[in-house]
Amino acid sequence: MLAVKTVAQQEPVAPAHLIIRDMDYSDADYVALVEVSNACYPEYPGTIDEWKHEDAHRPAHLKYRRWLAEVDGTVVAYGNYDQFEAMYNPRLFHISVGVHPTWQRRGIGAAFYTTIVEALNEFDPLRIRARAREDYQASLRFLQQRGFVEDLREWESRLEVAAFDPTPYQGHEARVVASGIRIATLAELIATDPDHRQKLYELDVDLTNDVPHPEPTTGFSYETFEHFYFKGPNLMPEGVFVALDGERYAGLSALWKSQGDPRELYTGLTGVRREYRRRGIALALKLRAIEFARQLDVAVIKTWNESNNRPMLSINEALGFVKQPAWVSFVKTL
């Protein structure tokens, strides 16, 4: 999760014994990294397996570097710059800084930011991007004080699964099926369709291109998709629902595990190809996903939607998803 979560109100001086060093990717460093990250973002707990998988499968052409900050041998913060394959520009970078709550307001975030920016100078960056949640007021000030400007918002929405009432939607999927669409799980497709990976990749690319992005989309390779989709630690083939028109993959709604909290699921992507929209397919996919979560006794489903994506926001609101504070995307043009 790329976000700046630190406090910098009066730019306090960093501790004299602060050391900012490159992460060595040892088990000990991963343990320290996850501890700090989870302390900063307790609502989005991550695991060592998840961090390791992302680091191990980053495409080689993407520039990346991560540091840890120590005070007297204790890791108190982390920071990195990165590039995203789906929004790739060789001179565009995304930065993240996380300072353990007990060490905030001590100038560590400011020191980390300086370290990252100085390291980026050799690449002559055009723009730097960062994210923060709108209720992280100190983080917003931190970015704004350094010349970052907001350019996109994503609503986070959450559904309390036990409170969901399926009664108003009885017969909806049957009507979609009657129109010629059937819904299958990825588990079923793995067993019956030898081309399921390529078809799902093409569907994912098509849908992702229609998702609002703060930068021009550049796509992602099949290898990247396979690593993160099929070889990642959070895939649940029974929780990925695909709408089929004959043999064609027309729509998708995918639920992913939250290793940090087994009673939560994340919605990765829900969408329908343009020519299949306004037929109730996305709603049918979401209903199947919610029913799957109910069977697992999951407490909460989390999802994210760009603030102007009215069709998907309307579906989520009708289903009972409740908006949380938005995640704000910032950019600094150099």
From TrEMBL:
The keyword Transferase applies. Signal peptide: none annotated. It comes from the Bacteria. The keyword Methyltransferase does not apply. One of its GO terms (molecular function) is acyltransferase activity, transferring groups other than amino-acyl groups. Residues 18-168, 181-334 form the N-acetyltransferase domain. InterPro entries: Acyl_CoA_acyltransferase, Bact_Acetyltransf, GNAT_dom. Keywords: Acyltransferase, Transferase. This is N-acetyltransferase domain-containing protein. It comes from Candidatus Chloroploca asiatica.
